[in-house]
Each structure stands twice: as C-alpha cells, then as structure tokens.
Amino acid sequence: MSLLGPRSPNRGQRTRQGQAWYARGEMAKAKLLKKTAMLPLRDGALRVVVVADTHSEPHPRAEALIRELAPDHILHAGDIGDLGVIDRLRTIAPTTAVRGNIDVHADEVPDAITIDVRDFSDPSDPASGDTLFKILLLHIGVYGPKIRADAAKLARDEGAKLVICGHSHVPFIGRDRDLSVFNPGSIGPRRFHLPIVFGVMDVSPTRVEMKHIDCETGQRWLP
C-alpha cells in the first residue's frame, strides 16, 4: 500500500499530494510498505556506497567515482526520479532503494527497508552468520540534526541501530536518541549552496567507518 495516499491520474498532482503528506508529518499515520534485506561481510569486510536524491539527474562524475570504489552494495535513500537511475547503479553493484516523496510512480519500491548486516563464519551456511547491526533505510528520517520521532520509533521497532536517510540534501553523520544517523547528501541537481556528495560505509566485524565523497573534486568531503 502506498504511503502517499490515493493515486491521481495526473503525475504532477500526485507528486504535490505526496510532498504534502510528508510535510504534514503524516508518515507515521500511513501504512508503510516495508521490506527486509541482508548484507553479508565478505572476507571480513563490506563496502557500501550510499546515495540519495538523484532526482533523475545524477552528477556526471558520480557513476565513475562509485565504480572506482568497487562497492559490494549500493543503497539509495529515495527521491530517485527516473527508475533508470537504479538500473544504471545496478551495473556497478547490487542496489537496494527506498522511494522518496517524489517517487509516487514507483509502486514496487518500498518506503522503508530493514537491513541485517551479518558476518558469516561459513558463507555457504546461512545459519552460521551473526548479526553485527541493523540499518533502517528510509527517505525522511531527520529534522535538522535530530531524528524524527516516527523514524526513531520505527528503528527501535525493527531493532536498527543506524538510520540512513535522505531528503534534506545535507550530508550528515551524527547520533541522536541513542541511534546513529547517516545522510549521504545528494548526487542530483544542486540545491542552494549544498555540496554534491555521496556516502561510503566500510564495515568490519569490529568497526564501521562512514564518510562522504565530493562528486566535483573526487575527494573526501568534510563539513
């Protein structure tokens, strides 16, 4: 069931309706389309690239920069736009995405995904794996530097320790409500003065490192 309410035959009208739902904070009242996924460490390591807010127009350098990093997986935190964006990302690595407030055309894309990050002693035996932590991937998760109450509740309900979200276009790594937060920023058209960046998450059995990469310089971005 769609988060964004009844469909209209007019896409522009549907988009405005969807944005209004988010703006009024009615996400928690609606029935979310939720899914689960699993990301395994390979040889004790996992590299995940995190993107968001492509709005159909990823930065021209984004694909090459992501490919150079050789990620094991790509996460898209919503406001995809043209779903061909996901198809192109999948030529680099398996890609998991949630829909954002502009993605009312993407009925098959979930609103939230709980991702189990696991370390397998024997990759051929699913029962051998230990959960390191869980990620809640959704589009709108923060208000400024603070986690929204509905996102925090959903994360706790799902047993997630890390919330990955987009929407604001503001790259951010922080902690609130006893949860870690990672906003990769946007690799789509520039909003105001904000950088055009994506996130990288490197996971080992004992450590998680998160950073941002600037699409214009190809270097690590720091605030």
CATH superfamily: Metallo-dependent phosphatases
Q: How would the global form be characterised?
A: globular
Share in β-strands: 25-35%
Q: Which structural class should the secondary elements be placed in?
A: alpha/beta
Q: How is the quaternary structure best described? A: single chain
Distance between the termini: 38 Å
According to DSSP, the number of beta strands is: 14
CATH class term: Alpha Beta
Helix content: 10-25%
Q: Count every helix, treating DSSP H or I runs of 4 or more residues as helices.
A: 4
- Average pLDDT score: 88
- Secondary-structure arrangement, i.e. CATH architecture: 4-Layer Sandwich
Provide a short characterization of the protein structure.
This protein is an alpha/beta fold.
Describe this structure in words.
This protein has 223 residues and is an alpha/beta fold. The chain has one domain: Purple Acid Phosphatase, chain A, domain 2 (4-Layer Sandwich), CATH 3.60.21. Helix content is 17%, strand content 32%. The chain has 4 helices and 14 strands. It has helices spanning 11-23, 62-69, 84-89, 149-158, and strands at residues 34-40, 46-51, 73-76, 95-97, 112-120, 129-138, 142-143, 146-147, 162-164, 172-176, 179-183, 197-203, 208-214, 220-221. Strands 1-5-6-9-11-10 form a 6-stranded mixed β-sheet, covered by helices on one side. The longest helix is centred in the first third of the chain and has 13 residues, at 11-23. It is globular and about 45 Å long. It starts with 10 loop residues before the first helix and ends with a strand. 39% of the residues are buried. The model is unreliable at 1-26 (pLDDT under 50).
